[in-house]
Amino acid sequence: MKKLSLGIIGLGGIAERLLPTFLKHARTGQIVGFDIDEERIQVMKKKFGIETVSDMDILINNKKIDAIYLAVPPKYHCNIAVKVMKAGKHILCEKPLAASIDEATKMYEVAKETKVIHAMNFPLYYGFAYSRIRELLSTNTLGAIKRIELSALYPVWPRPWQQTPWIDSREDGGFVREVFTHFIQLINASFGKIENISSFVEYPDNEHKCETGLIGIGELVSGVKVVFNGLCDVNQLGNIRLLIYGSEGSVELQNWRKLIVKTGEQEWITAGEMKDQSKSINTSYEVVNAFYEAIDGEKTRLVGFEEGLQVTKVVEKLLRKS
Ligand SMILES: NC(=O)c1ccc[n+]([C@@H]2O[C@H](COP(=O)([O-])OP(=O)(O)OC[C@H]3O[C@@H](n4cnc5c(N)ncnc54)[C@H](O)[C@@H]3O)[C@@H](O)[C@H]2O)c1
């Protein structure tokens, strides 16, 4: 079994979360990291014992590196990903694909042209809730889909545990890009494209700061309406809910993990609060494993840049940018 050598560009919060999974995976060989912040390089080198470089181009052009995990803020994804793909390296890119439709389109075009493996980190897609939703749809438990709703409330944005320099910027931060992206991908994977988007976005006076509220509506090809509602600065616990209403039953995904199915007067929790830990899925492992399998030429489930572009189109149209 040939091990794969991995470069990591961007050694921030999410890279720190994914590194144990990369290190644990039997297929991972050498790992070489790079970050523009030299102090951060030293912290991550000490914590994980990885090799590091202080010049990104040396990493991208290193012939021994098979693939790159790109985990920098969204506005840098495009330029770096294009370089990586043009150097013939496979790429696992963080979501959202980019902070504009133009950049996401370019990334998808270069991915097609260079024929490298291109994948994105959408852990929800590999989790219990998505497979349960697919099952409910395939058994027609929900009946005809009538409406989909995504609703998020935040007492404060950015959330206290994610204080990064870009997360509240209008250019590439905000809860729509950071959080809605995951659920839009889930809707896209389950029901197809969301089109005909219109929205009302609330922005603060400071033109550099991200949205504080959003009401939006989109439409599936079937005509089913998808409703978006997001609001910050409300005095209650943060909460995100995806609701799928059907003629025979409904399903609600609460706070990423808890899945509640409702039919008539019955309600039951089917994921997230189950005691049986053996049924829990390490979604990061599934993402990394699928990426490696695709590099090996195996048939696997990846979210590629074409889907990433589709999701970015919805996100940026909701934010009324094109
Ligand atoms: N898939 C998920 O569940 C998930 C969760 C959190 C974040 N993310 C995504 O991951 C990306 C990074 O988020 P984060 O929370 O780790 O942010 P972060 O700010 O904690 O980390 C980003 C790192 O990139 C470095 N960096 C910035 N510009 C760079 C450049 N040009 N070249 C090299 N390094 C550079 C920064 O110094 C920082 O260390 C974003 O796209 C974010 O949306 C995904």
Please provide a written account of the structure.
- The chain is α/β, with parallel strands linked by helices and 322 residues long.
- The chain folds into 2 domains: 4-121, NAD(P)-binding Rossmann-like Domain (Rossmann fold); 128-280, Dihydrodipicolinate Reductase, domain 2 (2-Layer Sandwich), CATH 3.30.360.
- Helix content is 33%, strand content 27%.
- The protein contains 9 helices and 14 strands.
- The chain has helices at residues 13-24, 38-48, 56-60, 77-86, 101-114, 128-138, 175-191, 283-295, 305-318, and strands at residues 4-9, 28-34, 51-52, 67-70, 90-93, 118-120, 145-154, 194-202, 213-220, 225-232, 239-246, 250-254, 258-263, 266-271.
- Strands 8-9-10-7-11-12-13-14 form an 8-stranded mixed β-sheet, covered by helices on one side. It has a 6-stranded parallel β-sheet with strand order 3-2-1-4-5-6, sandwiched between helices.
- Strand 13 and strand 14 (266-271) form a beta hairpin.
- Helix 4 packs parallel to helix 5 and helix 5 (101-114) runs antiparallel to helix 9.
- Residues 273-279 have low confidence and may be disordered.
- The structure holds nicotinamide-adenine-dinucleotide (NAD).
- Nicotinamide-adenine-dinucleotide is lined by residues 9-15, 35-37, 40, 56, 71-74, 76, 94-95, 121, 123, 164, 178.
